[in-house]
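PROTEIN ENTRY
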Amino acid sequence: MKGQEWYQATEVAEEYDEKRFSRGGRLIDRREKQAVLDALGRVEGDRVLEIACGTGRFTVMLAERGADITGLDISGPMLQEGRRKAKQAGVEDTIEFMRGDAARLPFPDDHFDTVFAMRFFHLADTPAKFLAEMARVSKNQVFFDTFKRFSTRSLYNWLLPMGSRLYGSREVEDLVDGASLQLVDSDHDFVVPYGFYREVPDWVAGPFRRADTAVGATPFGDALASVSYWDTRV
């Protein structure tokens, strides 16, 4: 995985949410959480696995909605932040945080109703292996996001110290087929790349996001979007 040493540093975990999801980044946080809720629907009583759960943004949110959820991540410090967040929310008894490798998931086949990953595949060095493992342990749904190759993300990618893996739609469809999954829905968003929103205050981010959404609603919106959300079934 790209940036693995950086990602596992304690100071990175402690500052992760503040750096990415404060200021204009709150718009990203809300949109990503809504994407997960829209795709997963009612989760009460469902057994859910989150791959690369990080600081538990989605893990805690779904636990609050009644999911029996496991959050897996390779970073111990990130998991510690997730446990702290779960305790603050009063759901620490309904979440299991585990350190592990997404390429070798420690679960039997068909163990979860839903498996999902956010902010994961842009760092994946072997995406086919990861997606196959997600499909193996799910008996119903696999949901994930990717960054698009032919978008403003390509320009922004040049500025990143470790870059990101970018995907064309055909490549994702081939990965889905290779994992014996069926694509049932896809959604595309953010003409302006994430990095811009993270760097500007709310009063700047808000108007840009409204313009971004307006462009996204046009016939050209999907083609210009930099982020894609993929909903598949086993």
